[in-house]
Design brief:
Low-confidence stretches: none
Number of helices: 7
Number of strands: 0
CATH architecture: Up-down Bundle
Distance between the termini: 51 Å
Number of domains: 1
Shape: elongated
CATH superfamily: Ferritin, core subunit, four-helix bundle
Largest sheet: none
CATH topology: Ferritin
CATH class: Mainly Alpha
Helix content: over 70%
Radius of gyration: 17 Å
Structural class: mainly alpha
Strand content: under 5%
Length: 154
């Protein structure tokens, strides 16, 4: 399978996963995080598809890091103040983090094996995007696992 085809497949799997997780979230803030990640994966898919079809490397970056991450602290304080209603959230975030870890590893590998500088740069951009997802997921997961460290007043 061509690396770009494989990357498109990975991005569609990521989108599907995040949409499914968003549907499981009882809390609108958690749903918003996963929907933002799903939207990013769709943008990544369209970016890779564009490269494959036209060779153009224009990309508008992630919005989840800006739109969602800015509100994580406020949202988490509200959620944790009322108690996390679903302990499966931790498991879901751990699985999402594992997915992003695998994506980063994959795109690093594809960048190393790229046949052109443009392709290598595109895979490295995807590495940066998935690393931003990882950072966001780690932040939420750490807060869920150790809320007293982040919100001692709870």
């Amino acid at each position: 399978m061509h690396p770009l085809d494989y990357a498109m497949q990975v991005e569609l799997q990521g989108k599907k996963y995040y949409v499914e997780q968003a549907a499981l979230m009882e809390d609108s803030g958690f749903r918003e995080i996963f929907q933002g990640l799903a939207d990013d994966e769709e943008r990544h898919y369209q970016f890779v598809k564009q490269i494959k079809q036209s060779g153009l490397y224009d990309y508008e970056g992630s919005t989840v890091s800006h739109n969602v991450a800015d509100h994580v602290d406020d949202h988490m304080a509200d959620v944790l103040g009322g108690g996390v209603s679903n302990p499966n959230y931790i498991t879901i975030y751990q699985q999402a983090l594992e997915f992003e870890d695998k994506s980063v590893d994959l795109y690093n590998e594809l960048a190393r094996d790229a046949t052109s500088e443009g392709e290598r740069a595109a895979f490295m951009m995807l590495v940066r995007e998935e690393e931003a997802h990882r950072t966001l997921l780690r932040r939420v997961l750490q807060t869920l696992q150790r809320p007293e460290e982040y919100y001692p007043h709870l």
